[in-house]
Amino acid sequence: MHLTNSSPSITPRDRHLLRHAALAVCCAVLFAVLTALVQTGWRPLSRLDHELIDDLHRFAAGHTAWTASVQLFSDVGGPATMRSVLGAAAVWLWLIGARTLGGWVAAQTLVGWGGQWVLKLSFGRQRPTFSDPVAHAGGPALPSGHAMASAIACAVLVGLLWPRAGRTGRITACAVAVLTVLGIGASRVFLGVHWPSDVMAGWLAAGMVLGSVTVLVELARPGALARDFRRVNWRTRPRVQRVLASPPRPPRDPAARTPDPAADHPDGLLR
Questions:
Q1: Tens of pLDDT, residues 46-99
Q2: CA torsion, points 126, 128, 132, 134, in degrees to nearest 10?
Q3: What are φ and ψ of residue 50, in 5° steps?
Q4: pTM assigned to the model
Q5: Residue 2 and residue 143: Cα distance in Å, rounded?
């Protein structure tokens, strides 16, 4: 009797969906736990928030030059910059024909922006207050918009580079992205405009957006993201690869005499 394995195999697309669904669910669970601890005033978390931000504020107030540089870094890496970069990437992808991928980038940007404000208004957490603040920011505190926007933008940009980068390029891209996200999040705490838990909530909210948007796009357009990644890879191949792939020119015979137009002319001169 011949036995066959009737269980369906897991395709790469299925693994892709499962990874992003797991990312969204895990971040949502952790976000719910974190916000519950914040709302109930869990003492260890509250003590960490207050002690860390008080220590950083004292340092920031006494080192104005360093504080100004951190403020500049925070402003440059703010949500407006991150969303502008993603918007430009979405337009470029749309123009080269990778429209599902461009829509995915645009959806990450818009859902991140809208989700940030839905969460902020839902919790309405107050920002830290000081008698001598070194920076100012408006709106509710949780989650941090800077932390959320930078995490979404850096993850999307690394995702766009990933299929076309080698091992060294991937490591470099991931290192730059992680340092950027950590630096921007830390700058908001250092400037005293966010509690540390606000920044952690921003990162978790970013994971929720990244995972859920990817799953929805994959379910709506099965396989379209992978096809667009291949299209982008083809459209952005370095021209040097095509040059190197072309057949080499035959070697020149050193014994061959280079014709002299003047010598071949009847008068020996070019008129």
A1: 999 999 999 999 999 888 899 999 999 999 999 999 999 999 999 999 998 889
A2: -110
A3: -70, -45
A4: 0.81
A5: 58
